[in-house]
Amino acid sequence: MKTLLSGASCAVLVAALASTAVLASPDAAQAGEFDGVTIEAKLIGGQQYEALYARIPEWEEATGASVEVISKKNHFELDKEFKSDIAAGTTDWCVGSNHSSFASQYPTLYTDLTGLIGQDVVDEFVQANIKAATFDGRLVMLPRAQFDVSALYYQKDLYDDPEKAKAFEAEYGYALAVPETWEQVKDQSVFFADPPNFYGTQYAGKDEAIVGRFYEMVVAEGGDLFNDDFSPAFNSDAGKRALQWFVDLYQADAVPAGTTNYLWDDLGNGFASGTIALNLDWPGWAGFFNDPSSSKVAGNVGVAPAPKGSAGVRTGWSGFHGFSVTEDCEHKEAAASLVDFLTNEDSQKLESSAGPLPSRTAVWDHVSEQAKGDAYRSEVLAAFKETAATAFAVPPTPYWIEATNLIYPELQAAILGDKTVDEALSDASEAVDDLMQEEGVY
Amino acid sequence: MKRLKLPQWLVLLMPAIIILSAVVLIPLLLSLYSSFTSYRLTRPDSLFNWVGLFNYEKAVTDVKFWAAFGRTVLLLAVALNLEMLFGLGLALMISKVTRGQRALRTMMMFPMMFSPILVGFQFKFIFNDNVGLVNNALQSLGITDTAIPWLVDGNLAMFSIIFAEVWTSTSVFGILILAGLYAIPRDPLEAAKVDGCTPFQSFRFVTLPFLMPFIYIAMAIRSLDVARAYDIVQIMTNGGPARRTELLWTLIGRTGYVDARMGYANAMGYVSIFLAIFFTIYFFKKLTAARKELGMGV
Hints:
The structure holds two protein chains of two kinds. By secondary structure, chain A is of the alpha+beta class.
């Protein structure tokens, strides 16, 4: 009954938000403006993204245009499809889901939205996100309310046990409290670990995911992944300290043995299974972790801002989803209107009501206001807001994904003990340097 | 004006020539051409950027490429031999069954009915170090109290992949060898019995030579399959961790579709094709020799 009621109230809320969107949005297209136009779209698929797509008929009704979704996949699959489209020259569809980590790879695919979207609209977004959506002065996407940065989820009761606190302090010489630095995360992870039943922490161990984690750790250690000319900069003291952190945890059995094969779903399900003490993860998991039907740690989840590295800088690798309009689209104005609609204030309020973080300043305030009275939601928002304040996007190079494919096997080799940290970083740096030179970057 | 008249045989062959050209020949020539360019999927104009043998030089001097090549040959050698042995065993046992043989034959083919992607997911779960069936069973039975990293350890990860390959394809050998068993004439076997041969001698010197052509046909088919192994490995380990299970096609697939370097990926592909050609010629030579031995002609 409770589910039914909450479902019903959600429906009412959605309907209310939807109606205000059409009536009140200052950017709403004029009625019948795009009569007879069909916009083909390639969108990211998945349960968490569907609520927004349910609004599309409202835009169709308001403008007279229709939307045909011709592809719905996750971003990795969409990425391959976009590349094939570019190769085949079949890029006359109009609207595509985009992501800040992938966007720089498609320099010819998407059009500059600057002339199509009013500056007043662009100004309403978090400007750091707009900056990360701009390549060579071209605004290639508008961010939706799917801003991602990671904060630290933890099991609260681990910090309520006086015996544990006493034992920890005796061993490490400082009081057991929710960690504020990555060094403390390491100490506590080793302390809490009891393999194979319980682990201190875990990390994404392959593909772009581990390079992203390494990247933010290098920054937190005071270094950087690339120099200004995109030559590799991670084979540095900061880089070595960052990689050593991953290696130490693996070799101390403080993380699951299979962590080098884990990606986001494995990590989320792992923490929800109750076998992980501390888990750096994305905001989209907040509801899942605290839902008794999906998580064994529901009611016992705490969320803290991402810890800091030895340079006093928080980790904060961030990314966001967005929508772009293709250069070859026949009806760019209509497509831009759809993108505007899908990222407007009401759309963002709808999406962020389910947990994801917004990318519009006003919606951040709205979400904080809505969370009042819900202690867990407030804690989640406070932690992510604090982390988002110093978040940073991936380096804006079209070779980001390719560079990560060269770096991650070397990081894994160090973690698994096939290479030393020095060897691994030196090999990775050499490979990335070769790539950049081959591509004429410098 | 005289109309051009094509010979009748050419007219009759024309549909086949056109279709084969469209779906095989032209893509092959295009991919061969692109292997001499710096073609990137995301930059279509790079298709005209001729780089000569650069991609081939890069591939043949790349240690990672040869390591993947070596691992593919290893997988091929181990998986093929195991599948042959298990398939032979299965076929021999099924051929002895007098009741329910049809049902058994159908059951034997079940693994072949699953998509390789599903097989990959199935074994990824079975061999998961934390929630996987194998580790949970071993821990529950008290055999180990550690989480064995099946998909992480270099040897165990290759073992897990070979296990999945063998599980899914042993029945290819089983079915073909069973067909061979049905085709064996009874006379030589009965003659061997009369001459006092032991069952092992009958198998070794009569049954097996008759089966060899079938075994080599299965080997040739499966060697092409395994040489282009991709789906199961992609799902289970994606060639990792630390390239410990990187095979030719996981490397080529990533280079072509994720890194978008299609020119280089095609060059690696053409070098790899030699592996497939080598094994195909080898097994066909063996097949011819086996048929000759049986007096079946060439």
